[in-house]
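Sanity check

After download, print the first record. It should look like this:
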Amino acid sequence: MKQHSIDCWEVYTSYDRDVSHVAYFATEFLASEFIIKDKNRNYMNKTRHRKNYVIFESLDEVAQYSREALRKSALSKLTDLEIEALGIKT
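Expected structure tokens:
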């Protein structure tokens, strides 16, 4: 299993309620430069885009990841006293 994090700047156009993706840039400076040089710059804006990806290399990893996520979700719903009463070690 591999985990990748992407941190970049998204440039998009916005007119009324329509929003359209234009491009992703590595730095805020590049995104700003692109907007300044574009003829439709009055309708463009930028926002920071962060995304984490989990890439599985086998079906076993998918099943294990799903079980761990389910366990984590279930434990988050229990109080500390309930966890202790069940004898669960986190």
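If your output differs, re-run the checksum step. Summary of this record's structure: Residues 2-83 form one domain.
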